[in-house]
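WARN retry 2 of 3 for item q-0093 after timeout on previous attempt; input resubmitted unchanged.
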Amino acid sequence: MPKLQGDLEIKFEEIIEKASEEYQNKNYAKAIGLLTGAWNMLPNGKYEYDESFTVVWYVLQTALEKGDIEAMNQWVDKVFIADPGRGDTGEREMWAGRVAYKSDEKEKALNYFKIAHKKSKGRAYGSKDKVYKAFLNETEKGMQFKEEISHEISYKIDEYARKGNKFLDKGQPDKALEAWTDGLNLIPNPQNTYSESVWFLVSIGDIYFKN
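OK item q-0093 returned
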């Protein structure tokens, strides 16, 4: 991805530094104004520049501190297209989740946080993100195991579980895997709301691990 060069780079860095000073002094409106100026300095095709992501990040961070939901929503879409060559570790979804959460779009925020958590392997959260991490954990915990399987399906599932156990005892893990997969497929979607899913997933995962 292209980077700013020469005098333009120097001037850009000066504005970013001034914006940082205003941020530290809690002059958030001034900081956003300076950052907007830095954004406008980027040449045509500005989203391709490495610096584009930096500006968007700083604007969102400043707007978050200011509690300026309108500014956050004006800039958040840019976080997905700025500096496309940047490594994908869930930072973009994390910002989208923060904005959605502050905008009281909790379901949307949850989906973004899930993606950020997965991409970052749980490392997406900063020191100020405890509320978002707690929200994700509590929501997912509350979603677990609320549903009950019907007696008819439960009976069939138990049959597949026993069948798989017999195959495994006979040293036939492939057939056990097939039986347990068939049992898992009987569980309605979303499968994570049924406790029966845990047994099958753990058993299937154990076979893959041993193989």
